[in-house]
TrEMBL record:
One GO CC term on file: plasma membrane
Primary location class: membrane
CDD domains: TM_PBP1_transp_AraH_like (cd06579)
Known role: Part of the binding-protein-dependent transport system for D-xylose. Probably responsible for the translocation of the substrate across the membrane.
GO molecular function, one term: transmembrane transporter activity
This protein's record includes keyword Metal-binding: no
Protein name: Xylose transport system permease protein XylH
Subcellular location field: Cell membrane
Amino acid sequence: MTAVATPQQTKGPQQPSPVAGLKELVTRNMRTSGIYIAFVAIVALFAVLTGGLSLSPRNVTSLVLQYSYILILAIGMVIVIVAGHIDLSVGSVVALTGAIAAILVIQDGRPWWVGAVAALAVGLAIGAWQGFWVAYVGVPAFIVTLAGMLLFRGLTLIVLDNISLSPFGQPYTNVAGGFLNGLLGGNGFDAFTLIIAAIAVVGYAYSQLRARQGRIRYQQTVEAMPLFVVKILAVAAVVMWFAWQLAHERGLPIVLIILAVLIIAYSVVTTRTVFGRHVYAIGGNLAAAQLSGVKVKRVNFWIFVNMGFLAALAGVVFSSRSNGAQPAAGQMFELDAIAACFIGGASVSGGIGRVGGAMVGGLIMAVMSNGMSLMGVNQSWQSVVKGLVLLLAVAYDIYNKRRASAGR
């Protein structure tokens, strides 16, 4: 008997109804969807608890400046975690690279960019050092980076001779504290910030439309067009509101431009390059990746080189923000970066995680810390709350895996 094609088989990908599309949008990849919902809920909660103070232009600007270096670290950390590793040394690398910059700029009187370039070069060397031990010697990343945490902290104390160095002065401090303001406006309002935000929204909408068309072309399920439009409008509204707040304060922070470039670049690297696919392959199934011809050692080496570079960049940003270098700089930064990745949907066993998710996870930590500080909550209780949030995020990841295994 000859099989007869059903209408569903002949018409290609079907556009679900709005109700079915909403269900699909919520249930498909719930971990990623849930983190955005949680972020909006946390922002709304602290807006209410602080009487709107957390959403003021000044506080929104301070939030960007205070937590930018953690977000930079989270970009590199999520790649490390996706590959099935961990890096405990990034806080010490932040301290050491900031100390190198301080010695050159403050003590030796070198130009600001010499200090920044030297710090980045040291970060790359540190990444190569740790990548060698992990990739080619085979020492677990936990041990290598734990040793690195102690080693680079000790080197920081040696370089600074156990004293703090300050101030850097401008233009070094402009890296983390400078603004593009008054280019297209004045009197407390900067139109340039809004124009940049509008361009970013248009770019985001175009990329999402292209991605949707690609999924349709490969006969994959997509959300209904009304829901797709609502999603784009929601993102546009949040971005433009954020830009409006910045425009009414001091304009567009330079560090936000740096962060935006990094997010775009690493989102492309992790999702649309061979290197990114190999990282996910290694973290998802190491044996299968090796059998598929992935050069595991080389990929692991460059993962840590990249982490060293981003840790050094975070060191430059942090030292610029604090206008100096301190022996104790970077304490607990590695835990904040790791927490941002796990809260943002990265899996404890590797193979799962996105740069965008890590950014949202970092922002959740930032909003919670900032909101509790505005409320006058003691630092001890802030640590308790953040620890519980991290524990629940990892527990949710494990729950999802068990449910997926049971459904097979």
